[in-house]
Amino acid sequence: MTQAWWENDCLAINEKVKTQAEERQGMLTKPPGSLGRLEDVAITLASLYGDEKPEIKQPLITIFAGDHGVVAQGVSAFPQAVTVEMIRNFVKGGAAISVLAQVNDAELKVVNCGTAFEVDFADDYEALIDKQVGPGTADLSLESAMSAEQLTQALSIGQQVVEQGKKDGIDLFIAGEMGIGNTTPAAALGCAYTGQSAAVMTGRGTGIDDAGLTHKIMVIEKALARLQLTELSAEQILKELGGFEIAAIVGAYIRCAQLGIPALVDGFITTAAALAACKMNPQVHDWLLFSHQSDEPGHQFMLEALEAKPLLHLGLRLGEGSGAATALPLLRQACALHNGMATFAEAAISSASEETAS
Ligand SMILES: Cc1cc2ncn([C@H]3O[C@H](COP(=O)(O)O)[C@@H](O)[C@H]3O)c2cc1C
Ligand SMILES: O=C(O)c1cccnc1
């Protein structure tokens, strides 16, 4: 059997440049380690770019949108129509991520991966890409969320977006998502990939009440109970419990790692996609940076499973790529410090004395 594209090797990180970047951090005019995580970020980016002086010049933010059959179970505080309504808001500039993309000088694209209501493309927005796989997934609490063909199609949406990005010269990829109900498939995937219970992994999403939360946990338990998880591959789990936009993000993360583009992961839903991507191709992990910890309580368990230490913890629980976009200036500042600070020798500053330096 031939290997699927997502199983192909990812680019190796540049260990030589990593060592050089570590050495440079030790020479800059500051006590060693005093810039904390910013030092790690610069070293990581240097090793990924293979460039001792890393820089983020052309970030791309892509929102993947999709609808979910499971909303029929009453798992969201908002109606399904909001998915398509928000697509319009993204391209018109009114959404949180639209503002964050602009203030961070990042390109924003929106991809419709499969929505239940018609997206009006009459305005011919350049940023809007139509890749409708179907009018939303099937209800994952009752049956497979998607067919094997739909999974392949959805994965290839992300693959194609990243390949186009590579041609355009992007050097950082941020995936955002929009899909009413998508904290339910994300939590279900989180359970399946980490082994945590639905009670631990499930949160309020857009703001359901206590009764809604109890019901949402039950819906996810029902979805998990219809599967023999130990007998399923990572991609079969994604097909059973995922969403079109989630699978597209999985495809995007994998292709980023294969093409050597770092991806900055956002919140709960994109981290579920990151988990799937790492299960389907473990080499992807090196290319993922984690921006923030969402207030959706299950997020920390997904992050732990990925051994990820996110940069920020701001109480965000929006998605759309908003947490990743908020962390982008930190990445840029980490690079600027790494590249622009003087070394002890350049600034003629005495370094730590032999006796006291540890
Ligand atoms: C106006 C609005 C904008 C959003 N932007 C992101 N989400 C977020 O909320 C949804 C997931 O939560 P749940 O599973 O509870 O439906 C996703 O669309 C996610 O991106 C939004 C939700 C709403 C209502
Ligand atoms: O963290 C997220 O991505 C998130 C949390 C709640 C609702 N939508 C998205």
UniProtKB/TrEMBL annotation:
InterPro entries: Nict_dMeBzImd_PRibTrfase, Nict_dMeBzImd_PRibTrfase_bact, Nict_dMeBzImd_PRibTrfase_N, Nict_dMeBzImd_PRibTrfase_sf. Pfam families: DBI_PRT. Pathway: Nucleoside biosynthesis; alpha-ribazole biosynthesis; alpha-ribazole from 5,6-dimethylbenzimidazole: step 1/2. One of its GO terms (molecular function) is nicotinate-nucleotide-dimethylbenzimidazole phosphoribosyltransferase activity. It catalyses: 5,6-dimethylbenzimidazole + nicotinate beta-D-ribonucleotide = alpha-ribazole 5'-phosphate + nicotinate + H(+). Its EC number is 2.4.2.21. GO terms for biological process: cobalamin biosynthetic process. Transmembrane segments: none annotated. It comes from the Bacteria. CDD domains: DMB-PRT_CobT. NCBIfam families: cobT_DBIPRT, PRK00105.1. Belongs to the CobT family. Catalyzes the synthesis of alpha-ribazole-5'-phosphate from nicotinate mononucleotide (NAMN) and 5,6-dimethylbenzimidazole (DMB). This is Nicotinate-nucleotide--dimethylbenzimidazole phosphoribosyltransferase.
